[in-house]
Amino acid sequence: MTSPTPPPFLDLGSFLSFLEQSGRLKRVVKPVDKDWEITCIARWAMESTPEDNAYGLVFENVKNYNVPVAVNLYAPYATYSAALRIPPETLLERWATALGRPQKPVSVESGPVQAVVETGVQASLLTIPAPVWTPGRDAGPYLSAANVITKDPDTGVQNMGSYRVQVHDEKHAGLFFGSKMQHGAMHYAKYCKRQKAMPVAIVVGASPAVNFAAAAKTAYGVDELEIAGGLMGIGLEVVKGKTIDLLVPARAEYVIEGWVSPETQVMEGPFGEALGYMNCAAPAPVVDVTAICHRQAPIHHGYVQQLPPSDGHLVMEMGVLGPLWYYLTQKLRLEGLRDLAIARGSAGLAILVVQLQRSHARNAMSIGRTLAKLNFGQKFIYLVDEDIDIRDQETLNWALSSRVDPERDIHFVSDISTFQYDPSTLAAFAPLRLLHGHRGWDCKMRRAGDLTPRSVHHAAGTGKLGADRAPRNHPPQAHSTANGDPFRTRSRLRPFVDESSNLSLNTLQGLRKNTTKCFCFKLQECLVSPSLRGRQR
Ligand SMILES: Cc1cc2nc3c(=O)[nH]c(=O)nc-3n(C[C@H](O)[C@H](O)[C@H](O)COP(=O)(O)O)c2cc1C
Ligand SMILES: [Mn+2]
């Protein structure tokens, strides 16, 4: 007899209890500073622990706050899939089901997230212990696991995207849309055109499926709350916002409500990006907070940002792979695919690994080209044979080393843009001479690694952390938006490449006059017996 499937996790608290019961959660009871200790300890815990023993962390005693902070919750794969109550090997299929059969949210009258509703002077973002994720370098504290809900003013259909949110002060938060094609950004552009303020709800600390769905690269017009329901196999409970007409998860820890004015933008960033570089500060939409709703005893949840590894990267990766798998297998009905993965360290999206069925080996190049054109942000696509464990980096490298003839098997696909914040391709749009002499932190992407607790501690000890790079809550500086196009000001974002750490990529790109953005490694017929490696999945 098979045991019944356990019920889905409906909120963050039940998932934390599950992690704790399975020995995968540690509580830090010593007081910690939210502006540097949380991220340093969390990063150290992630990097120093073998995946099989990975654990989440709850910082129970955050200095000057009475709200705990939970981090490192959704990595590795085993934990991500446990959060959906499924085995890891069925993840892609679960995503395909969720996208193929989304579940409508279920409206309820009230929910724990509105146990406390703070408005007016009571509502202050500074009561939420938002950490600084790249201490000493980020512009200030961020809500890094923010699920941002907006609504298309034409259709009334909601969208939820995982966009970082900078805490500017008690009542203001910056919204970062990585591109104007992000769905929240498209909504914002529509409101700007009408000269109307956009209602927004920022959901923090929800059921795992909500976080996963918010990172999903779905089609425009798909409500990710329905995808969250599809991932859970049951409609998500939602309540109406208190000061805005949006439906929000009823069992979240926090929902921050507010309005984004079409008129004003505020400098956002710099911030440590997913590939481990600092981005520039640039004007960005700003939320005027009207209410902070939360549970009686809320927990703040964040992703450690910046350099991989982090659970944020894994959430991003599955948000790419799940929809991609669905699209390729259910919509395009592309034959010959066996499995998809994203290589470690590639910021959750840059290196896509595609496993093909042996019977379709001869179509490898056309499959590769189709994938390249789909453009989910990838820069490299590896097409590999059935016998390779595509989640094992050593085996992948073995396959690249032993099966790929660079002349014959590497194909370049031109004019396809990659991840927007890839410093090597940003450089492609700037004459090299521009890059020299621009070494200020604020105007370029810069490698921001080496954030061991020790190095940061040392910086703090010497007073460096308290200098001008220190986390701060600077007063918002208003920038008026260019009329009609709210994103014109983004062009201030300067391209930059850190020459010292990017040599090999630049060399490759230089060969292609910087126009090539995507390579395919052709699958070679297996010359070596699969049993030689013996790593078949
Ligand atoms: C941890 C994490 C942080 C992210 N930060 C941002 C961000 O700040 N801005 C952004 O535009 N996308 C960000 N993304 C990617 C978006 O969540 C993703 O592109 C998603 O598809 C956006 O939803 P949308 O397609 O409805 O716009 C992030 C993803 C993750 C997992
Ligand atoms: Mn969307």
Overall description:
With 537 residues, the protein is of the alpha+beta class. The protein folds into 2 domains: 91-301, Electron Transport, Fmn-binding Protein, Chain A (Pnp Oxidase, Chain A); 311-533, UbiD C-terminal domain-like. Helices cover 27% and strands 22% of the residues. It is built from 16 helices and 24 strands. The chain has helices spanning 12-21, 37-48, 77-82, 91-100, 183-194, 208-214, 224-232, 311-331, 364-374, 393-403, 406-409, 423-426, 432-435, 453-461, 503-511, 530-533; strands at 25-28, 56-59, 69-71, 106-107, 116-119, 142-143, 146-151, 158-162, 165-167, 172-175, 198-204, 237-240, 247-249, 254-268, 277-278, 282-294, 300-301, 337-342, 351-356, 380-384, 410-414, 446-447, 478-480, 516-521. The strands form 5 sheets. Strands 5, 6, 7, 8, 9, 10, 11, 14, 16 and 23 form a 10-stranded antiparallel β-sheet that branches. A 5-stranded mixed β-sheet has the order 18-19-20-24-21, sandwiched between helices. Helix 4 (91-100) packs across helix 7 (224-232) and helix 6 (208-214) packs across helix 7 (224-232). The longest helix has 21 residues, at 311-331. The structure holds flavin mononucleotide (FMN) and manganese (II) ion (MN). Flavin mononucleotide (FMN) binds next to strand 8, helix 5 and helix 8.
